[in-house]
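Quick one, probably user error.
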């Protein structure tokens, strides 16, 4: 039996760089369902929070405890960055690569690559160089490349930054069906429309601390702190 990743518990968790705390200490337990959306002003620590939880930023204090051993938890997570890094290869090769690295046969990898390219609307672009795709197409490829490994948890850092309305909607549709299939999403966004559309749970970061949190949609109507209220109104919060 495969044990569950969740709940994950952060106890005094923090990450620092050259002695400066980027985010933390954070005390928080996350359960395994739905989309958790991380919001907050620029520099409040959203990216650092995601990276710390994923293990991409070193924990410099406190602990993070998964429902299963940490190496197993990390194997079952994927991370989509704000500016996806593409292999200088075709769309198909970008999709087959993570599978082949995990020991999947080339034939099986190609079949799954075609299936995933179809799911994200890139079926006609399999032979195209990934580097010449548009921003929206690259972000869809990055999503498919993350999802093709069937992660239980997907981190997304501003997945729709600099995308237009249509590309944003397409990405959100993929994320909604990913969520419906049981993958936990933890994502940051500056787009409060997107936060409202996507969130089951909201974390509001301010100056590297978890300042407020709540379930959606209630959080958006009744944030618990004046700072969260001001941020949601669009006021400058520092
Ligand atoms: N590698 C690093 N070295 C030093 N400081 C860093 C590093 N990465 C982030 N920081 C600092 O940590 C703080 C939090 O940054 P982070 O990128 O996590 O915030 P954010 O909420 O994601 O910001 P944004 O909304 O602008 O993307 C900022 O003050 C940033 O300058």
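Nope, works fine. Designed sequence:
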């Amino acid at each position: 039996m495969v044990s569950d990743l969740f709940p994950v518990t952060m106890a005094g968790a923090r990450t620092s760089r050259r002695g400066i705390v980027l985010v933390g200490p954070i005390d928080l337990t996350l359960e395994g369902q739905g989309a958790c959306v991380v919001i907050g002003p620029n520099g409040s620590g959203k990216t650092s929070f995601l990276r710390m939880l994923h293990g991409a930023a070193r924990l410099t204090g406190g602990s993070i405890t998964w429902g299963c051993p940490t190496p197993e938890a990390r194997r079952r997570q994927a991370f989509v960055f704000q500016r996806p890094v593409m292999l200088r290869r075709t769309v198909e090769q970008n999709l087959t690569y993570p599978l082949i690295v995990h020991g999947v046969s080339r034939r099986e990898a190609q079949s799954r690559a075609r299936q995933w390219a179809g799911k994200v609307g890139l079926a006609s672009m399999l032979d195209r160089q990934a580097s010449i795709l548009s921003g929206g197409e690259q972000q869809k490829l990055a999503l498919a490349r993350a999802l093709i490994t069937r992660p239980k948890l997907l981190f997304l850092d501003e997945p729709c930054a600099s995308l237009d309305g249509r590309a944003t909607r397409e990405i959100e549709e993929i994320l909604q069906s990913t969520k419906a299939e049981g993958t936990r999403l933890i994502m940051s966004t500056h787009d409060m429309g997107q936060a409202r559309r996507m969130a089951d749970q909201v974390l509001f970061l301010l100056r590297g601390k978890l300042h407020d949190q709540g379930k959606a949609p209630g959080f958006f109507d009744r944030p618990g702190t004046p700072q969260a209220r001001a941020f949601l109104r669009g006021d400058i919060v520092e």
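The pocket of adenosine-5'-triphosphate is lined by residues 17, 22, 40, 42-48 (CB under 6 Å).
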